[in-house]
């Protein structure tokens, strides 16, 4: 998961039951992978369905106008898929370039993520605290420090505002609606 912070920096968020860890570096390029995948799968599904219906209509001796419409739908879906793929590729190239520039700025400021000596390299962390303990350069947001989470879904982006016990606030914005689902779980439902 990745999101833009209120300071304009992009962070990868590793979310667990006990909170999340903010990590700098190459987050923009990951921000709309899920959305791009859904669009490609949806359009491909339409093309496959229209193709199957066209073949069935043709094989069963159906009307030629139905076959022609099915073929047009297949072509339109494939053109749409190609257009979306090209637009996504151009956007991803720009995002990778912006990520590289931000990473250089972060490195110059001393904000680089490194594994701590002795940290396991091939094991998945089971909690945010554990992952944070393995890394240098990540920032832990513990669930116990969260007072309020407000999820503001939008058409193209989701914004999540977080209030912490020390009075500080964090704002995350992402084109991936999973941001709201994941961070929204930290809302206190007992109040």
Write the layout of secondary structure elements.
Blueprint: E1 2-5, E2 10-16, E3 19-24, H1 33-59, H2 64-108, E4 114-115, H3 128-134, E5 135-136, E6 139-142, E7 146-153, E8 158-164, E9 169-174, H4 178-183
Antiparallel strand pairs: 1-2, 1-9, 2-3, 3-6, 4-5, 7-8, 8-9
Structure description:
By secondary structure, this protein is of the alpha+beta class. The protein contains four helices and nine strands. The strands form two sheets. A seven-stranded antiparallel sheet has the order 6-3-2-1-9-8-7. A two-stranded antiparallel sheet has the order 4-5. Strand 2 and strand 3 (about 20-25) form a beta hairpin.
Briefly summarize what is shown:
The protein is α+β, with helices and mostly antiparallel strands and 191 residues long.
């Amino acid at each position: 998961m990745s999101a833009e912070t209120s300071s304009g920096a992009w962070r990868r968020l590793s979310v667990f039951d006990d909170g999340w860890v903010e990590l700098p570096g190459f987050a923009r390029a990951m921000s709309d992978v899920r959305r791009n995948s859904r669009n490609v799968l949806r359009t491909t599904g339409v093309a496959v369905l229209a193709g199957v219906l066209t073949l069935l209509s043709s094989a069963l001796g159906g009307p030629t106008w139905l076959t022609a419409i099915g073929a047009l739908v297949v072509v339109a879906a494939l053109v749409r898929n190609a257009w979306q793929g090209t637009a996504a590729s151009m956007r991803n190239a720009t995002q990778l370039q912006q990520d590289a520039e931000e990473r250089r700025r972060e490195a110059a400021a001393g904000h680089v993520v490194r594994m701590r000596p002795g940290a396991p390299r091939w094991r998945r962390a089971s909690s945010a605290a554990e992952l944070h303990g393995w890394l240098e350069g990540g920032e832990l947001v513990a669930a116990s420090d969260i007072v309020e989470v407000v999820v503001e879904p939008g058409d193209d982006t989701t914004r999540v505002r977080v209030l912490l016990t020390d009075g500080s606030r964090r704002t995350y914005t992402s084109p991936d609606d999973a941001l709201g689902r994941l961070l929204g779980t930290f809302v206190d439902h007992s109040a």
